[in-house]
Amino acid sequence: MNNVIGLIFICIGLAFDVFGCLGLVRLPDVYNRLQAATKSVTLGTCSILFGTFIIIGFTAAGLKALLCIMFLFLTMPVAAHAVARGAHRAGVKLAAESVVDKYREDKEGEI
Amino acid sequence: MKETNRIKIIRWLIGAIVLCSVIAVILIKPLPFLFYPDLPFVGFFGRALYILLLACFLCLFRIWKGPTGADRIVAVDILGIMIVGLCAILTIATKRSWYIDIGIAWALQSFICTLALSKFLEGKSFDE
Q: Are B21 and B67 members of one domain?
């Protein structure tokens, strides 16, 4: 029974990973690619690790999988935020279809 | 203007057909196994590994063809996170528990690498 539940979690994670990478290829802009790929790939990889934990059980490797889930949930938003901030400061332009740019408005308001 | 629209639609269709056919071949046709055949669930994990390799090749396409440097940094980050999942699958499939140690170390290294690259990107602009 544990094996079946773990395999279902791994299937969900694989689907999220593939769709996240599809968004990384298809979307038109750095920021769109960042938000599509980071969110869905984080959820997909954490789901794969949780399925690993359910299949293996409370052993050393299973607890290391839980530790890895916690670490990914803590670090992936920080990395995505840093990349977006750096790209905006380096002057990467938004896509032609985008409507609003709040970060630039904020920076101009400060000055 | 109309011609460019038609070319866009044709490229979209070609990409969708190629992706769906690759996923169907992975799921249906028996590909060569990467593990010993007497392990449990070896068919499922072989197919899962091939699907993750397909996702990694999509990331490699973005690294190869990214217009700016930020695209390449995002793709490298995503590739690192996906390899953590691949290490987890290898842990179950081969019953060797040191693969998950490689996964944890890879996640740490990928986080620090992304932070350093974004700091470098913030300092100077190397797009185009």
A: no
